[in-house]
Amino acid sequence: ISVDMLEGLIAALDFIEDRSNGVRCVVLTGAGKGFCAGANLQGRNTSTSKSGGAGSVLESHYHPILRRMRRLHCPLLTAINGAAAGAGMSLSLMGDLKLACKSAYFLQAFRRIGLVPDAGSTWMLPRLVGTARAMELSLLGEKLPAEKALEWGLINRVYDDAELMNEAKKMAKELANGPTKALALIRGLYWDSPENTFEEQLDLEYRTQRIAGASADFKEGVTAFLEKRPAKFRGE
After folding, report:
1. Which end of the chain is more exposed for a tag (fewer CB within 10 A), N or C?
2. If we measure between CA atoms, which residue out of 103, 102, 79 comes closest to residue 91?
3. Where in the chain is the domain with CATH 3.90.226.10?
4. pLDDT digits (tens, 9 = 90+) for 96-140
């Protein structure tokens, strides 16, 4: 990951968030044989750059990107097509649904260069696999193969390498054709739930359900059910 790549992600998010472009689902994957190997230690202004201190690019680039990914108006899939290491692993875990090929693996590589996990790793990992396994991955820096990651509950599906992108596109199409306004509200509920008490979450569900219940998609869903036909959702 270089600053140029991060700025490319920012530009992509600008496009996605512009509702006039009609984006209803996002698939994040890697180009080539891997998903993302983490920071480019030889590139300009990486998270290890001396300019501004180690981690300066976290505040200037990573954190704004991660916050925007969390608040997207549509589902986000990550299709992990190989190694997902360091901050690349963090990006892979941002998916609402995380799909991987059999040859993929996950690696908390930070300890290998004397850094701590960043880009949201220490928030996401314990919530996905528990503190004990999060500690194990971070302190030992061992590779976690895709199928073991599935057993641990880190990811949702594992496919043969040749089938990953076909399956990701199929799932993305299914989500994009769905009630994306409600799907966005659902992802928001689950993203926010770890920070809320039970009572706070009940209140959030109530307020969110009122929004969903006032949507055109809800009206269409009920009408289609009564008319015994497939619903035609517009994400409104």
Report:
1. C
2. 79
3. 3-176
4. 999 999 999 999 989 888 999 999 999 999 999 999 999 999 999
Residues 36-79: tens digit of each pLDDT: 877 666 654 444 444 555 578 888 889 999 999 999 999 999 99
Supply the CATH classification number for the domain 180-226: 1.10.12
> Quick check: 98 and 80 in contact, CB under 8 A?
yes
The encoded tokens of residue 153 equal 């509950």
Residue ranges of the chain that CATH labels 1.10.12: 180-226
- Give the Cα-Cα-Cα angle 214, 219, 220 (nearest 5 degrees): 140
Residue 32 confidence (pLDDT)? 80
| Secondary structure of residue 143 in the 3-state scheme | coil
* Statement: residue 4 has pLDDT above 90: no
Cβ atoms within 10 Å of 136's Cβ, excluding its own: 16
95, HSE (Cβ side, Cα atoms, 13 Å) = 25
Alpha-carbon dihedral sign for residues 215, 195, 92, 145 = negative
CATH number of 3-176: 3.90.226.10
Does pTM top 0.90 for this prediction? no
Token pair listed for 37: 């190997």
Beta strand pairing call for 144-145 and 105-107: antiparallel
